[in-house]
Input
Amino acid sequence: QVQLVESGGGVVQAGDSLRLSCVASVRTFRMYTMGWFRQAPGKEREIVASIRWSSGRESYGDSVKGRFTMSRDNAKNTVYLQMNSLKPEDTAVYYCAAAWTSAAYDSWGQGTQVTVSS
Output
């Protein structure tokens, strides 16, 4: 498994921006598909964004399309989630996850809290 450490969460107002980071402790980082998930109180965990290991192709959940951008820097073993135009409904714990090539996600970070006030 991969150790993942997220950072960058915080408390912001609606309309503000935040950038989350996730650093992975693995030599073969480029071989991992990476994802960002979130879980709000009383709700199930949902995928926010992912970026494939081979093509670097990004995909996004419908609720964040056009506002969030995921990127990766393989030289730094890091993925980012740029979150713009934040809404109160974006409030959640955000988790970074890793999947070997196209397998299922099996490594998770500890999560970082994002709170958006109206």
Notes: The two ends are 38 Å apart (CA to CA). DSSP finds no helices and eleven strands in the chain. The longest strand covers residues 92-100. Residues 50 and 59 are 5 Å apart (CA to CA).
